[in-house]
Amino acid sequence: MAGVQVANVSRSFGAHKALDDVSIDFADGGFYALLGPSGSGKTTLLRQIAGFDFPDSGRIAIGGESVERVPVEKRRIGMVFQNYALFPNMSVADNVAFGLSVRGEAKATIAAEVQRALDLVQLGKLGARKPHQLSGGQRQRVALARAIVTKPRVLLLDEPLGALDKALRVDMQIELKRIQREIGITTIFVTHDQEEALTMSDRIGILRDGRLVQEGPPEEIYDRPQSEFAATFLGDANIFRGNATGNGILLADGTTIAAAVGDRLVPGAKASCAVRPERIQISTGVVKPDTGNANSLKGQVSKRIFAGNNSTYFVDRDGQTLKVIVQNTGAERLAEGEPVVLSWSPDSTVLIAA
Amino acid sequence: MADQLAIGSRRGLKPALPLLLPAYLWLTVAIFLPLSAMVFFSFMTDLPLAGKDWAFTLGNYAAFFSQGLYATLMLASLRLGLEVTLWCIVIGYPAAYVLAKVLKGRSREAIFLLVILPFWSNGLVRIFSWAMVLREGGILDTALNAVLPFKINIDLMYSYPAVIIGLVHSYVPYMVLTCYLTLQAIDDSLIEAGRSLGASRRQVLWRVIIPLSMPGLIAGAALIFVPVVGSFMEPRILGGRTGTFYGTVIEDQFVAVFNWPLGAALSFILLAVVLIILALAAPVLRRAG
To answer: Which residues of A touch B203 (CB under 8 A)?
Structure first.
């Protein structure tokens, strides 16, 4: 087991900069998600860590040992591929045994280790099957067992749950997390699914156009996004753009929005504020002054989407559509077209430099 | 895919008949009928031409077993088929690998064209152009003597190697094509998965790539071995006196000696031997694939 350090790694393919000076420290035993839209460089970064491709510049270390020029087969990593990449000509047990057998381990050792790995992923009885006789979820587990049986220093997962349907994906998320805790392996997980990143990882790195946008624990990125991109890519956010004042921003129409979270900015500088839809209260009357909701705006409900446990209101205000999510408490529902007042606390408002 | 097959079989054979009939009619007319006539000939004492007398006999088949020459030539032809097949694997498989896994786009198309080129040229032209290359004072001899500081004498013409060279040249595209198809179907992530598990490139080749491309190797080997065992054009032109094989003897019976019944009988013995070899090899090959 070992941590992974990526320092100032850049990689270009022709004129395209796939990775641009990326540095991340992956702690030993942590569960790390690399999140980003397609083309953001997250898979390229994973392939650099795995050793399928070498960086143009920068340093990659696994367990303190520089590996940026070490080929993949010598890096002692485990990898789970998006399409599982099980060997179709081998049985489940032979697939799992592959990594041990190319190392020339004794047959008895291999059999015992394979059985232990298959038991860990709850497939102990299916060793004799061929991959094509398994369901998608079972193949996923075999791929995981095959990747961890060699006791790698780091486990790399390339969108491993992308091919599964939703219910199975949630099951596998829990299962993957359980197995990761049980063996305590450093895990780096590439995904474009923000929910998956939020629920599974200890830390998230958001990538965009080959650059690391923000990095930290999920709560921190969600509560204190440092860019509009981070705010809108990880979760939903209402964005207001204007000029910084001492403690918030001034919108073009003269409205001020107070923000208590985020960096202090030079007054007058271009800035924006991000507010999560579930932090906004929506009401038809006047806001009571004692709620602490110093920010308030008037608007008109343009659309309501009912989703069972909550409702999403789209509220038009001066050409901008704001999103508000309200828990379904049984209180009266607002009709489309109704004039409303939106209010929220400065503590829920993040100031972002433009 | 299993589901699709199940649906197909449930519909029955009837709707498929219009699609199957043209091919099977053609096969019946073009192959089955002439072949039946040949079977008939092989049991005759003489050709029923110009009012000659003829009778049924097993003598044509008995000739194979009574004269050791035919068995010797059969063994020589089988050895030739084996050697040519092996050379085609050695030369064709790496080429197919590079085409399927290394080259992309334009360069792949260009190299592919070069591989298929022998198919586009006439077989006789191909063989005679080899004759010009291999003979003493030919292209190979002249070129090597122009480059090398000492005098060497290259005369491969009318020799066993010349026959091998000509046959390998004619048949290597089959191996390249069948192997290319199976290699291309192997997902690159399987190779990456193997390496991520600590396997060297060589181990990935032997444990993943070759087993998965076995169907292509087997198909290519069958496509090459069978016609090479019965080949006569390359042995005759490039082999000269050394180029007497089972196939050339059969050709002689039809073209020179005009003993069609013996030629037909020898052909069917060859067919039987080849079928026995393929049947014996099938279980072994199936396990390997």
So the answer is: 102
